[in-house]
Amino acid sequence: MSVYEAIARRRDVRAEFTGEAPDDATLTRVLAAAHRAPSVGMSQPWDFVVVRDPATRARFAEHVATERAAYAAGLEGERAETFRGIRIEGIRESGLGVVVTHDPDRGGPHVLGRATIDDTGLYSTCLAVQNLWLAATAEGLGVGWVSFYREEHLRELLHIPPRVRPVAWLCVGRVSALHDVPDLERHGWRARRPLDEAIHHERYRSQTCRRAAPPPSPTTDSRPPSAARCRC
Ligand SMILES: Cc1cc2nc3c(=O)[nH]c(=O)nc-3n(C[C@H](O)[C@H](O)[C@H](O)COP(=O)(O)O)c2cc1C
């Protein structure tokens, strides 16, 4: 699979896990790809905690369900209704979790390139996540990023030291299919911005929305009306 194909096929997966975890060799290849990510000052601030124990995954899933309910309680009207139909995790069904952590002390106090922008450490860990996600896609696996959690809860659950941040719980497993369209777009939560809106020339232009929210045409626009509406 070319890198462009992997980028195009990559999807955040929630409902399509078959329950089959990747075999050890495949998982090692995927983690090796993550470990090859670029990092500020070559600090490599990430670690990967592989969680297979169903009891640990069940405890995490319960916590996530609580946080999902708290988020849902703050929504109103159409947003609340749309959110009700959206899955936000496949923790039990995916077969295993990979928790990607970030150690801000890795590389010592003089990380080359991090002196003026401390966040570059965190950016590096996120790049490891993206490498993992693309490699998993090329292996025919699904990945779902779960962030509906309190960092303290995950620290305690996995014995992560206080200074280390759990950046992502990634559900990883075999899937029945990968959809062409993101779940949130299919459910009418939010659509992809057009590329030309994201590209600026010479200077950053402040954007007032150039899409005047035209009513969706039933013949040319197959997306649900709420997805076609501009929300920027
Ligand atoms: C930092 C981050 C956190 C995310 N957290 C969640 C989450 O908690 N639950 C979920 O279902 N999806 C989560 N996602 C997935 C996004 O919803 C998804 O990437 C987006 O809708 C685009 O879909 P796609 O990844 O299939 O292209 C997260 C993605 C990122 C990058």
From TrEMBL:
Keywords: Flavoprotein, FMN, Oxidoreductase
Organism: Nocardioides dokdonensis FR1436
Transmembrane region(s): none
Gene: bluB
Matches recorded under SUPFAM superfamilies: FMN-dependent nitroreductase-like
Protein name: 5,6-dimethylbenzimidazole synthase
Keyword Oxidoreductase: yes
Enzyme class: oxidoreductase
Domain Nitroreductase positions: 7-174
